[in-house]
Specification:
53% helix, globular, 6-stranded mixed β-sheet, alpha/beta, Rossmann fold
């Protein structure tokens, strides 16, 4: 089965107290990836998740830390200078934000066929990674 790179927004929505439909959908997606051992994230995603969950959602930092520990069950891509260099190329060629480009660089590195996010164009393929908005 193909690996799926999970963007930060999917993790953040799994804690959203205001949009219960989106929260439930994201929780189902994350459980599926955990059970099928197909989910991939990066150190960038972990950092962004912690900041967004504690600052935007006002989640308890220790609760979020426990979730971060649980994320260790997923494959985690460590950001390297090579991945940053590739992200710069993606940023320049595709005119995306650097941070989105770094997510794509990590997804490509992990040989993911899909990237789940709502931040990019659904159906677009960049560097062999198909962008999927699973919340559509």
């Amino acid at each position: 089965m193909a690996s799926v790179f999970i963007d930060t927004n999917i993790l953040v929505y799994s804690l959203d107290q205001y949009d219960l439909v989106r929260r439930e959908r994201c929780r189902q997606l994350l459980l599926l990836m955990k059970n099928e051992h197909r989910g991939v994230i990066s150190t960038q995603v972990i950092q962004e998740f912690y900041v967004a969950a504690t600052s935007k959602l006002h989640a308890d930092p220790l609760h979020v830390k426990n979730i971060v520990h649980a994320l260790k069950n997923l494959e985690i891509v460590l950001i390297t200078p090579e991945l940053i260099d590739n992200a710069i190329d993606i940023h320049v060629l595709h005119m995306l934000s650097f941070w989105d480009s770094l997510i794509i660089s990590c997804a490509e590195h992990a040989q993911c066929e899909m990237l789940w996010t709502e931040d990019l164009s659904h159906g677009q393929i960049i560097r062999g990674v198909e962008i999927i908005n699973p919340l559509k």
